[in-house]
Amino acid sequence: MLVKKTISESAGGSCYHLNYSLYWLFMELGFKCTLISGYLSRFDFDHMAVVVELEQPYLVDVGFGEFFFRRPIPLNGDVLKDMSGDYRVITDEIYPDRFLLQQRKKDRWRTRYSFDLKQRQLKDFEQTYRWLADNPNAYKANLMLRKHLKNGFISLYNNKLTIIEDDIVRRIQIPKHLVLIT
Length: 182
Prior knowledge:
Strand content: 35-45%
Helix content: 10-25%
Shape: globular
Distance between the termini: 25 Å
Largest sheet: 8 strands, antiparallel
Radius of gyration: 17 Å
């Protein structure tokens, strides 16, 4: 159902829709990959992402609306420079079996979420998915849109429009009375 909604109906969706569809595609193409859960703030299953094995393991995540990196990030601490920022995955110093996805903001590394490499199943995310879908203060309270361009993207988050194209970043605050949220 998640793959059908995302691909056949071109509906987009949350990390559960987008990253599960990517995981399904990788599996169909014969890649060795792991569906993982990320911890943001509420639940251990409040984010879904994929780790794919190539010459080494890489984090792949196409379903996080606030930021987006276009290439896989190795789990060895190497920095990925992307048009939306610099990213790295490092081992958590407190919990060595967990990893931290970090993004550099103003010369400071900020943790976006933590995860481990435990293989998850779609059913593991069901309770959190239902909570987020039913909670009026979760996704439904925010307008989130993203359109990818050849050399960047356009992103709308509530009344904040961000345009990144050819490493040029433009941020525009839209007056709230002009934003149509139903």
